[in-house]
Amino acid sequence: MSEEASDVDRFLALVAAAQGRDVGLTSIQAGLLVAAELGIARDSRAFARKLGIAHSLVLRELNALAERERVLQIVKRDLRTMRVHYTLPPWDEA
Q1: Taking 50 as the threshold, does the pLDDT of residue 82 lie above it?
Q2: Is 71 within 8 Å of 61 (Cβ atoms)?
Q3: pLDDT tens digits, residue range 36-50?
Q4: Which of 5, 41, 83, 86 has a Cα at 20 to 30 A from 58?
């Protein structure tokens, strides 16, 4: 098995685990969170390109995710390219 295939398997396992923790997440939403956590993609176009998903679909899921409290933060929007940069919020040390 190639390293790339094992990376894909790891990514998919992490996406499934994220969905297991939060059944309200779609697979794309869980993928966005995992990609941000692993540093794979931190903007909508990069995520869409790397996963071969339509950018408009990623934008829809990203915006839905950003509406949820403390899940994801939108850092910057590029109106010309429609690229949305996002990050995971800092963890509260309570």
Answers
A1: yes
A2: no
A3: 999 999 999 999 999
A4: 5
